[in-house]
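Deviations from the work plan: none for this task. Representative record:
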Amino acid sequence: MTPPLLSAPLLSAPLLSVRDLTVTFRAEGRTQAAVDRVGFDVAAGEVLGIVGESGSGKSVTALAVMGLLPANGRVASGEILFEGTDLLRLPARKMRDLRGRRIGMIFQEPMTSLNPVFTIGDQIVETIVHHERLGRRAARERAVDMLARVGIPSARRRLDDYPHQMSGGMRQRVMIAMALACSPRLLLADEPTTALDVTIQAQLLDLLNDLRREFGMAVVVITHNMGVIAEFADRVAVFYAGRVAEEAPVEPLFDRPAHPYTRGLLASTPRLDADAERLVTIPGAMPNIAAPPPGCRFAPRCGVKVEACEADRPPLVAVGDGHRAACIRAGEAAA
Amino acid sequence: MARYALKRLVQMIPLLLAVSLIAFALIKLVPGDPAVVMGGSNATPAEIEAIRRNLGLDRPLHVQLFSFYAALFQGDLGRSLLLGQPVTEALLERAPVTLWIAFYSLVLTIVLGMATGIVAALRHNTIVDQLVSVFALLGVSIPNFWLGLMMIVLFSVHLGWLPTSGYADPLADPVGFLRTATMPAVALAMLQTGLLTRIVRSTMLDVLGQDYIRTARAKGLPEARVVLRHALANVMIPVITMIGLILSVLLSGSIIVETIFSVPGIGSLLGNAILRRDYPMIQGGLLFVAATLMLLNLVVDLLYAAFDPRVRVDR
């Protein structure tokens, strides 16, 4: 008897698979899609970078995965499969159980993301005790261990510190320690270094890189900084106006960007090795998502647009190995 | 903390001296001759002269001031003209009544104000929220004497549930205390409850939008824990600050409310003293209430430091 050919695709099933996700917001009586049929996969242990401008839907996508959309936002359609389970169909209680235990999240604002009236030890211990059958003393030991692992000196003593006694970089380390305290399979990092000094940024990225290897977890890192992507990500999804413009492994994306928006984004990133006197900018601004242009949303700013661009939404088409772009001229441009 | 408390206690001395000077000056600030005012329209010149001598008003001002402070530092606030009793004794006798009712009223204010404020914030922009806002508006708009009278009409006259007046010691007779003190306490609590509801509601709304609340949710904590621990601990900070303010309103409001409900507390004592121009009593009462408020505010400030780790009082 031949074994069923079922196990192979199951084994390679992604840890997180977002499919056709649409998130709408109600504002001033109107409904608008902040995320419009977005899809991407994250394999176990992989780092996916999501890059895009403010308002491109990156953070909203992460919050949708966490089930933490603000009150006026909701998932209108799509699936968010985590370890094969659709999170959108999960009862609130089960979803809560996943948060902080299987999926951790860190945010952009380390200065305000910790509760000012509780000690950092208290806040880490709370997560551990809530998710695991562990006494407070054991949880405290784990918290000390986590603080030491994220590089906080004299961790045991700092456990009883309040957030205001720490710097921004230290607080972000505490956030990381808290997010990883229950060894999640997936970490969502929403602009984790944006609010920090440049030197601290590099340290934290190194730390995240070490930790994700150590914990064997996948990371979705959301950023508008191409440098963070280059340093940290395995694969990249470029978001533009609530849609995925291009998706590729890091090297092909930097070497052969297929979408004109990605090319613009890369050209507008300052480089030390280039002798350009001025930075290139993309003309125009991101369209208002309340009244998006028909067809390709980048078309109004695109230098290579043709008439067909403004007619229909361009599909994501393969332009290389694992490299897809939502541009009808992607083939020509890559060539 | 102990050092800070001691420092604050020492700082109270000049404040109390200033208040005592105002209390002393009170008798001089009244237009006309205070002895004539005190004697009333039917007083004979001999009676007025007696009052004047009794109060020491016939002596030079600096002598009066000196003897006022000399007595004050010995804890002697003079003798009440109305009761014939030493002022200190009368105050100490009545103080527990007022403080118990104020405490009861404060508990009602905190429980009601916080509960309604939290519910309104959690049900933001719903009918519940609007009902709470109307309740809060009524609370701050209804004068406490009117509310007191209406409660007497309803609960004492029509329904006969509660006595119109009186007082029972809460430790000796708790049921009697609840029966007599509930209406005064509610009448006193309404204004502050309305204020507190508004503050708790707006603070809670603000806190629920903070990043650390999102963090608490991202940790997978149940919503009840997010609200009652992570949010509430932060809402308490402005609430504690407000309690100092509430206490002063409670003590000043007690004059009217105790008079309406014939409660034998400091409020009715001072109310009568003011109506009858019992100056030694007014002076003593003023000092006593001022000192009590200063002490209570010190307690509030110490509590404040306990609730907000960013405030360190020992420096």
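Residues 198-215 of chain A form the longest helix (18 residues).
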